[in-house]
Fold:
Amino acid sequence: MDSTDISSDLTEILYTKDQIDARVREVAAQIDADYEGKNPLLVGVLNGAVMVVADLSRALKIHCEMDWMAVSSYGSGTQTSGVVRILKDLNTNLEGRHVIVVEDIIDTGLTLTYLMQNLASRDPASLKIMTMFRKPEAIQSPLEIAYVGYDLPNRFVVGYGLDYAGRYRNLTDVGILSPHIYA
Ligand code: PRP
Structure:
């Protein structure tokens, strides 16, 4: 699905599929250079990171492996509490591995703050973060982010893995959701 298929649902397109593709390739080239010979493990955080892990991994020229975690935030409504329950853990032992946690978005940063502490305790050789999107105005917990795709305004954004009520993840562009959809 692209933005022309649902044009009345969006007030603005922020990044097109082509812009996203181009940025993923740039980030992949950085990772190629940084991890040559290291066979990094990409840890995708379900569900939103599916698109970026699929595209980033295929844009890499080096070998990598992939694994997945599913987490759920304790807390009410849309507010992240920072306490995270692991719904699906990794199948891979992280000891001695070069790990890159891959996210679709870092919003408050609370989910990843918890997750990074948890993963660091498993003795990886290195542990870094790649996120396709970041909302600088929403951050509550400062995180060291090694690789960022694009910054987003603190608005309701959908597409490329970002959902509203489970929908719009398969939108190839990224845009601001029209208030008439959620009002
Ligand atoms: C999103 C995103 C991150 C988290 C970021 O996941 O994928 O995991 O929120 O928010 P934070 O920085 O405020 O903690 P969500 O819980 O919406 O689940 P999803 O990936 O299934 O959409």
